[in-house]
Write a structure and sequence with these properties.
487 residues, alpha/beta, five-stranded mixed β-sheet, 21 helices
Length: 487
C-alpha cells in the first residue's frame, strides 16, 4: 500500500499540481478511499499545537457547482520565531448566509478543532453586510462574546472597492469600461465572430495567445488585464469590427456602433491613462494578498503607491500620455471639446455646468487626467485609513528582535509583537481555497460528501506539510478487518 501511494504520487507529479500522495489515491479511484480520514487527522495534528493561544479567524463564502453555499474558514497564528502562518481548517456547508447562521457555524468550527473563542484576537472578512454589520453582523456577534476580537475589513477588498468607485463615479471612465465589456460580450458571444477575431489575430500578429478579458466587480485584477488586452490587440479589434459590420447583415449595426465608440481620441486616452494608473494599483493589490503582511507594511506600501500617483499629477506625465495617445489613435477622430451645457436661467440663474476651457488639451488634463488621479488617490487615503505620520520602520524592529532573541528578557514585548503580527490584513487565503474547491468538486464530482470535500481541501492546500504514511497505514489497518496484512 505504501508503494502504491509513492508510485501514484510520482505519476501525478509529472502531469498535475495535485501532488499529495494520499490525495492521488482518491483521484485514481482505488478502493482504499478510507485512507483520507486518518491522513486528515495526521495533517491536523501539525497545526493544533500552535494555535492554543492568540488566533485570528478569516472567513469567506462562495457557491460550488452543486449550488451549495460553502464557507471557508482559516486561522492565523504566529509561531515562536515570530513568523505568521495561515491555516485552512476546511469547507463547511451552510443553508443560510445571515449573521446568526454564520456565527453559529464559525463557533462550531472553532470548538470542533480544539480551539477557544476566548483566544480569538481578531477577525477578517469581506465587506458583506452579514459579515461586517455593526449590530447583527458576524463580527458584532463574536465581539459580544469576546471584546478582544477586533474586526478588520480585508484590505484587498477595500482597494478593489476604490477601483469600482473610480469606474462608476467618473463618466469618462465609466464609458470606457462599458465599451470594454460590450466589446468582450459582442465578440465572445458568437463562435463565428470570435473565429474572425482569431483569424485576423493570426494573420496580423505572431502571438495568437492574446485574448479579450471580461470585467467583474469581484475579480481584483480583471480591469488591468482587460485594458492591456485591448491595447495589445486594438488593430485586430478594429479590423474584426470592420469585417463584421460589412459582412454580417444581422449584427453589422452593433459592430458599427462599437467601432464608432472605439475610434475616438477620448477612448484611447482613457485606455492609456487607466493603464498607467492601474499598473501601480495592481502592484499594491498583489502585495495586499500576501499572508505575511502586517498593518505597518500595508501602511508603508500604500503610502508609496500614493506618492507614485502624486508624481503622475504633473505636466510632464500628462504630456507623455498625450503623445502616446496621438501615436496610437491611428486615424481616429481628433480630440474635441464636449458640448456646452447650461443651467436653466429661471430656476438656478443660468451659467455653465463645467468651467470653460479655451484649449482642448487643458480640458483633457484637468477634467479627465487630474480628476482620475485625484479620485483614486483620495479613495485610497479615505478607505484604507493611511497614516501620514512618519514612523520608525516596524520591520527593522522585528528583524532586531528575531536576531537578538530578546524573548527571555522581554517576554511581554515579544507577546505584543505576536499580537500585532496575528492581525490579518486580508482574506486572500479563503479566496485561494475557492480555487482549490473548483478543482476538487468539479462537474463530475458534484455529489461528493461534505466531510470528504473538506478533508481533501485540507490535504491539497497544505500539501507541503509532511504526513506520516506509516501512521496512516496503521490506523487504516486497525479500523478495517482485512484478509491480507497490509503492514
Amino acid at each position: 500500500m505504501k508503494q502504491m501511494i509513492q508510485s501514484s504520487a510520482m505519476m501525478y507529479d509529472q502531469k498535475h499540481s495535485l501532488n499529495n500522495p494520499v490525495l492521488m489515491i482518491y483521484y485514481m479511484q482505488v478502493p482504499q478511499l478510507q485512507t483520507i480520514s486518518p491522513t486528515f487527522a495526521q495533517a491536523r495534528c501539525y497545526y493544533s499545537k500552535y494555535t492554543k493561544r492568540a488566533i485570528r479567524i478569516i472567513v469567506d463564502e462562495t457557491q460550488d457547482l452543486a449550488r451549495h453555499e460553502q464557507v471557508s474558514v482559516c486561522v492565523r497564528y504566529v509561531s515562536k520565531t515570530l513568523e505568521p502562518h495561515e491555516v485552512f481548517l476546511g469547507f463547511y456547508r451552510t443553508a443560510s448566509t445571515d449573521g446568526e447562521s454564520l456565527t453559529t457555524l464559525i463557533k462550531e468550527v472553532i470548538l470542533s478543532n480544539g480551539l477557544s473563542i476566548n483566544n480569538i484576537r481578531g477577525q477578517c472578512y469581506d465587506g458583506a453586510a452579514s459579515m461586517r454589520g455593526s449590530y447583527s453582523g458576524v463580527q458584532a456577534r463574536i465581539r459580544d462574546e469576546n471584546k478582544l476580537a477586533v474586526y478588520v475589513h480585508c484590505y484587498a477588498h477595500i482597494l478593489n472597492l476604490c477601483l469600482v468607485d473610480l469606474s462608476k463615479v467618473i463618466p469618462h471612465v465609466r464609458n470606457t469600461f462599458g465599451t470594454l465589456q460590450s466589446l468582450y460580450s459582442f465578440i465572445g458571444a458568437s463562435s463565428k465572430r470570435y473565429s474572425i477575431f482569431e483569424q485576423i489575430m493570426l494573420e496580423t500578429s505572431s502571438n495568437g495567445k492574446n485574448k479579450l478579458k471580461s470585467l467583474s466587480d469581484t475579480r481584483w485584477n480583471c480591469r488591468i488585464k482587460s485594458i492591456k488586452a485591448v491595447i495589445k490587440t486594438l488593430p485586430v479589434i478594429l479590423k474584426t469590427l470592420e469585417t463584421i459590420s460589412e459582412n454580417d447583415s444581422l449584427h453589422g449595426s452593433d459592430a458599427s456602433s462599437l467601432l464608432n465608440n472605439i475610434q475616438t481620441f477620448q477612448f484611447v486616452f482613457c485606455l492609456y491613462t487607466l493603464n498607467k494608473i492601474m499598473e501601480q494599483t495592481n502592484i499594491l493589490s498583489k502585495y495586499l494578498q500576501s499572508p505575511s503582511i502586517n498593518y505597518a507594511t500595508v501602511n508603508i506600501m500604500s503610502q508609496k503607491i500614493i506618492d507614485e500617483l502624486n508624481e503622475y499629477r504633473s505636466e510632464n506625465a500628462f504630456n507623455e500620455i498625450w503623445k502616446v495617445t496621438q501615436v496610437n489613435s491611428y486615424d481616429f477622430l481628433s480630440p474635441k471639446m464636449p458640448r456646452k451645457r447650461s443651467l436653466p436661467v429661471k430656476k438656478i440663474g443660468g451659467g455653465s455646468i463645467h468651467p470653460e476651457f479655451t484649449d482642448v488639451k487643458d480640458f483633457y488634463r484637468i477634467e479627465m487626467y487630474y480628476l482620475i488621479l485625484d479620485t483614486i488617490t483620495q479613495a485610497i487615503k479615505d478607505k484604507m485609513f493611511i497614516s501620514l505620520k512618519k514612523e520608525v520602520n516596524f520591520e527593522n524592529k522585528l528583524a532586531y528582535i528575531k536576531k537578538v532573541e530578546v524573548g527571555s528578557g522581554f517576554p511581554i514585548l515579544v507577546d505584543v509583537f505576536k499580537l500585532f503580527l496575528t492581525i490579518p490584513m486580508n482574506s486572500a487565503s479563503c479566496e485561494r481555497s475557492f480555487s482549490c474547491l473548483r478543482r476538487l468538486k468539479n462537474y463530475l464530482r458534484t455529489t461528493m460528501g461534505q466531510t470528504r470535500l473538506s478533508d481533501l481541501g485540507l490535504l491539497y492546500i497544505h500539501k507541503d506539510k509532511e504526513v506520516n504514511k506509516d501512521a496512516v497505514i496503521d490506523e487504516f489497518c486497525a479500523d478495517n478487518k482485512r484478509r491480507i496484512n497490509l503492514k
